[in-house]
Structure formats: structure tokens, C-alpha cells
Amino acid sequence: MITLNGSSLTIDQVKRVLYDEEKAMIDKKSMERVMKSRFAVEDIVATHKITYGINTGFGKFSDVEIDKKDVHALQLHLIRSHACGIGDPFPEKVSRAMILLRLNALLKGYSGIRPLLAERLLVMLNEKIHPVIPTQGSLGASGDLAPLSHLALVLIGEGEVWKNGKPENAAASWKALGLEPIKLQAKEGLALINGTQAMTAMGAINWIEAEQLAIQSEMIAAMTMEGLHGVMDAFHPAVHEARGYPQQMAVAERMRGILHDSRLTTRQGERRVQDAYSLRCIPQVHGASWQVLDYVKEKLEIEFNAATDNPLIFDDGETVISGGNFHGQPIAFAMDFLKVAVAELANISERRIERLVNPQLSDGLPAFLSPQPGLQSGAMIMQYAAASLVSENKTLAHPASVDSIPSSANQEDHVSMGTIGARHAYMMIQNTRRVLAIEAICAMQAVDYRGVLGMSTATKSSYDEWRALIPPIIEDRQFSKDIERLSEYLSKGRTGEAVV
């Protein structure tokens, strides 16, 4: 059971809630803070103190006063009008993450919601009432207004939720639990949608999957080292200590550990003095991607526990400030940085694939790992496919955060595009996993030629597991099925541990 208090949620806890479907509870003191901020909102309504989003319109309409009798209708109109997301829906786990993260942010006690709203979000999380949320339509400033509005629709019984993989009307879910949909009161609609939880939820899943890929990429690269008689001296600890990056040293240490008892790798001068960069520089390149993962994790965990709506209520209501914590720039930068790191895992993997299939570079392996070079093409077009995915990643890696377009009649004149960056990062992760699957297929074929009895204990364990899915290439076949099968299998290593 995860206890939510608005200030201590970690990526590991998010992982447990999303993938292990662990339930959550609300910290009692957090609910006391929520109640105090709610009293402040009710006082603002009662005294008609002009405050943004409580008794004014939104965005460019912030100078329009709202009559006291209409403050509830204001919130309902807000949710309905802003629920204009378009495109395919987010994966269901992303909508689950949005519920978790929005609830945690509201528990900081700066948002002015009723405790009932927090409790209902908790019900959604624990009862798996996951909103159907379109992926497109957010600018990433003023928060993720469109996606979070689709989440809020579920609370008022007007949206759709996932039921056995298909959309169902949200009202049916509440009825099944014996609950009535929420009737939003002053500020509650704004508090629900004025945040960065779409990009941050997508970002959390991106990080979890990217970390998993980074670990798996080392095992796959190690198998390629064996297939190409790679030179182990490049991983000597002195080399990496001389540079000093902890992540680089850690990759080199793991590579030494994976390959410590291999009889297929070589030493400097045995077959060649040094390898090409895609082998020799595995610690430097993969290590740099790990540096990015560390950076992104830090930013995500800050955002998990951030108050990101507007206005924020401080000092038991004595201070109410309109600010801009909904602006997604920190996460936009983090997602764009993650895209570069993921792209490089694919880039260097594709170069290793080329070395495995190119007879001029493969140290005696059959051309394209073909069982009958010429008559059968073997892995020739698998390298094409990897190159295509790598090239697509390069276009997706263009930073979304350098773009901005004004909205709301130039009141909202600079936006982050962070949700676009997070979506593109997710697409790149899927592409990169497929590239790594292709490398694994080629590396397994290479060690078949070299002699699997010479493999290290660790790589042989992975080889056996993957060979149960992907048979050796003894005759050309539809390799797309192999790629997708292994890619899907790799995706199941979701705890962040190597599939070995």
C-alpha cells in the first residue's frame, strides 16, 4: 500500500502502482491541509473577493467577473469546453498514472478542493476506473488542459473509461460502485486540469521503459561482443576511472561482469589491437545515456510532488497567488533530453548490427549471417529495418520544447509543448526496442557460428531464453514476426531488470 502525501512520491512507488497495481491510501495530515485550503475558497466565494478561476473566467476571460450564483456552473463549463482532446487514446497505464499524479499534487493542500474530490480520485485509482484520454491537444502550458479535462469528465460522469480494453461510459462505473458522479464546486474544475500530469505521467512510463531498455541493451551488446570476438581490454576499470563519469564506470563494470567467463571475447592483440567505436565505446555511449536517465528521474520526481495549478492558496487562505507552475518547461526539456539518450542507444545498436552482417567487418561470419549467402538473404533486410527505425528516431528527436505558439488571444503567449515531447519519446522507445531486438537476433545467430559453448554464463542464460522464442536462421522466413515477438518479450521486463 502506497501512502500519498503530496511530497514523497518516487519513481519506484509509481512503478508499483502502475505495473503491480498496488493500491494507495491518503495521508491523514495531507487531508487536513486539503480541508484548510477548501475553507479559504469558500470564504472567497462568500465574500466575493475577486480571485482568478474562482469567480472570474479563464485565460483571456480572467477579467470577466462571475456572479456568485454561477461559480459552480463555471467549473462545469470549463471541463466540458476544455475536453477537446483528439487522436488515439493514451495507453491505459498513462491514464492510471495521471490519476495518481494529479491526486498526489492536490494533496499538497494548495489547490482549494474538497476532500471529497481527493477521495473520489483515490477510488478511481484503487478501483481501476481509468479514463479514456486522447493523446493530442495539449500545449503543455496552462497545464495539460485538454487531456486532464477528459480525466475530469469521468468524475462528473460524462467521460469514458476503459472496461476490458474497450471504452465504456463513466456513469456506469460509478453506478456499479453505488456512487454518484461528483458535482464540481468553486475552483475544483480548474484544480483538476491546471497541471502537468499528462506529460509527467507519460514521462514516468517513458523513464521506466527507457531504464529497462538501457539495461537490456548492455546484455545484447555483450552478446554482440561475443559474436564479433570483441576486445575486453576496452572495459578495463583504469580506462574509465581515468575519465571519471560514474555512469560510464558502471557500464564498464557491468560489461566485465556479464562477460567475465566468456571464451568468445578476446584480448588486445590476439585478433586485433582495438575494436570499432560501436564496441569499444559501449561504456562511453551507453554511460552518457545513463547520465540522461539520472537527470530525467530527478526532474520527474520533483514534478510528481509539485503543486502545478493556479492560483495557489497559502497561509490558510490569507495569500492567494496567480502564478505559472502549470508551465511544463522542466518536463519538456527532460523529455527532449530523454529522446536524445534513447536515440543513441538505437544508433549504436544499429552500427553493431551492421558489423554483424557485413562480411568485411564481421571477422569471418557469413555474409548477412545467411545460411546460404546469395541464395538466401539472411539478416540483410533486418539491418535495413533497423536503419529505418533509427532514421525515424532522428526526426522524432527534434526538440518539441524549442517550439511555442501563442494561445488564448496571446494571454498564454509561451507554451512548452512538453506533452508532444513525451509522446514522441514514447514512440522512440518502441522503435529503439525493435532495433535492440534485431541486434539480439543477429547476435544470437553470430554466436551460433562461433560456438554457444563458449558464451559467458550470463549471455548464455539470455540466449537460452530468447532462443525459446526465436529459432536459429536455417532458412529465410518472415523475420518481421521474430522482431515483433522478441520486442514484445523485452517489453515485459517492466520492473527495470534485464530479461535474463
UniProtKB/TrEMBL annotation:
<dbReference type="GO" id="GO:0004397">
    <property type="term" value="F:histidine ammonia-lyase activity"/>
</dbReference>
<keyword id="KW-0456">Lyase</keyword>
<feature type="cross-link" description="5-imidazolinone (Ala-Gly)">
    <location>
        <begin position="141"/>
        <end position="143"/>
    </location>
</feature>
<dbReference type="Pfam" id="PF00221">
    <property type="entry name" value="Lyase_aromatic"/>
</dbReference>
<comment type="pathway">
    <text>Amino-acid degradation; L-histidine degradation into L-glutamate; N-formimidoyl-L-glutamate from L-histidine: step 1/3.</text>
</comment>
<dbReference type="InterPro" id="IPR024083">
    <property type="entry name" value="Fumarase/histidase_N"/>
</dbReference>
<keyword id="KW-0963">Cytoplasm</keyword>
<dbReference type="InterPro" id="IPR001106">
    <property type="entry name" value="Aromatic_Lyase"/>
</dbReference>
<dbReference type="InterPro" id="IPR008948">
    <property type="entry name" value="L-Aspartase-like"/>
</dbReference>
<dbReference type="InterPro" id="IPR005921">
    <property type="entry name" value="HutH"/>
</dbReference>
<feature type="modified residue" description="2,3-didehydroalanine (Ser)">
    <location>
        <position position="142"/>
    </location>
</feature>
<dbReference type="GO" id="GO:0019557">
    <property type="term" value="P:L-histidine catabolic process to glutamate and formate"/>
</dbReference>
<protein>
    <recommendedName>
        <fullName>Histidine ammonia-lyase</fullName>
        <ecNumber>4.3.1.3</ecNumber>
    </recommendedName>
</protein>
<dbReference type="GO" id="GO:0019556">
    <property type="term" value="P:L-histidine catabolic process to glutamate and formamide"/>
</dbReference>
<comment type="similarity">
    <text>Belongs to the PAL/histidase family.</text>
</comment>
<dbReference type="InterPro" id="IPR022313">
    <property type="entry name" value="Phe/His_NH3-lyase_AS"/>
</dbReference>
<dbReference type="GO" id="GO:0005737">
    <property type="term" value="C:cytoplasm"/>
</dbReference>
<keyword id="KW-0369">Histidine metabolism</keyword>
